[in-house]
Amino acid sequence: MTPISKKIGIIGAGQLGRMMAMAGYPLGQKFAFCGNNNDEPSAMLGQMFIEKDCAIESLVDFADVITYESENTCVEQVREITKTVPVFPAEKSLFISQHRGREKILFGQLDIPCAPYQLVNSLDDLKKAVEEIGLPAILKTTTEGYDGKGQFVIKKTSQIALAWQKIGNRELILEGFIKFSRELSIIAVRNAENEHVYYPLVHNIHDDGILRYTIAPAQQIIDSVQETAEIYMQKLLDELNHVGVLALELFETDSGLIANEIAPRVHNSGHWTMEGAETSQFENHIRAITGMPLGSTKPKQEIAAMVNIIGTTGDINAVLSLPNTYLHLYDKEERAGRKLGHINLLADSAEDLFATLAKLEQFLPK
Ligand SMILES: Nc1ncnc2c1ncn2[C@@H]1O[C@H](COP(=O)(O)OP(=O)(O)OP(=O)(O)O)[C@@H](O)[C@H]1O
Ligand SMILES: [Mg+2]
After folding, report:
1. How far is the centre of ligand 1, averaged over its atoms, from the C-alpha of 183 (Å)?
2. 328-354 confidence digits (pLDDT tens)
3. CATH classification of 7-87 is 3.10.20.600, yes or no?
4. What is the full DSSP assignment across 261-307?
5. Which residues surround the ion ligand 2 when the cut-off is CB under 5 Å?
6. Span 116-176 CATH architecture
7. What percent of the chain has pLDDT over 70?
8. Taking the CA of residue 353 as centre, how many other CA atoms within 13 Å lie in the half-sphere pointing to its CB?
9. Ligand 1 atom at minimum distance from 100 CA
10. Counting CB atoms within 10 angstroms of each CB, which of 151, 301, 307, 350 has the fewest?
11. CA of 208 to the centre of ligand 1 (A)
12. Tens digits of per-residue pLDDT, 28-43?
């Protein structure tokens, strides 16, 4: 029998790598990371190859399979590595999800509704795109955006030149502004045997462009909406031949779900699954990329919340005193806007959850 234990190489050494390794060790897996320095959140969890000339080669020598933390991982590098060691999710998922225009084309091909859009390469293009799409609209860089960075909401025509000046001089995309009632996301997992599993839709609340809360499952979701989200996901997984976790961010509107973007990796809106679901997104990702059967995505309790700890840590001892509360710190230095950790809460009712959340709020920085 082939040994179950695999050596997993992770490109990146942040909190996502850390949590993947923490989920994989009980399954008998081994981990190494390719990162920037020895202070990163994953550093103590396996061998670290520091990003310089031969770090990737060392990771490839170590690994039976390679995965990554970021959709900004270099596609050419992944293509090269794949000649020696399998990389999951594979190149196609990475190539599409690192460019907002390619994502939108894929949504169109698969009949997944998304915002109207135009690619923009000059101020002239932008003026034409505004005429076509109308205002308000949201201008974004096609690549490398995160936490709402590289975006400009254009409300009036007088702002067009300023918007181009602020984030232009590179390829942009103008999107129609979607009037949404809530922001939702869904996480799905597929393994190479074509097994698919789906977590319930969750409700994401942002503060200053950064995810602050996830409520899981999102409340008042009728079965047909969950089914629609799963159908969109299944189409994406199959088209991409995706192996691993895939996240899809959605807007909930009066006319149904509208897709925003995908991420070919474990996702912040899935951190609640660590204590909140029978199998966490991290464990299911590791299972998927190592050819293991996938685990149940069923929530363990009626409702859960995930609260991100951003910038400063707050009164951690007070947080630990709250019932049904689980702390995850990433071993990062405090810095404005930085995700330092998160807290998961489980409850038997929405009422209990929001009561504990209100207490928790007092102990966390605003
Ligand atoms: N077309 C749109 N209409 C209305 N609001 C939008 C639109 N696109 C984005 N937004 C708002 O801006 C936020 C950030 O956008 P988006 O998710 O595309 O960027 P991001 O930088 O990748 O963010 P994150 O890293 O948090 O996922 C969204 O969560 C949403 O609140
Ligand atoms: Mg987003």
Report:
1. 9
2. 999 999 999 999 999 999 999 999 999
3. no
4. EEESS--GGGTTHHHHBSS-HHHHHHHHHTTPPPPP--BSSSEEEEE
5. 249
6. 2-Layer Sandwich (3.30)
7. 99
8. 23
9. 18
10. 350
11. 11
12. 999 999 999 999 999 9
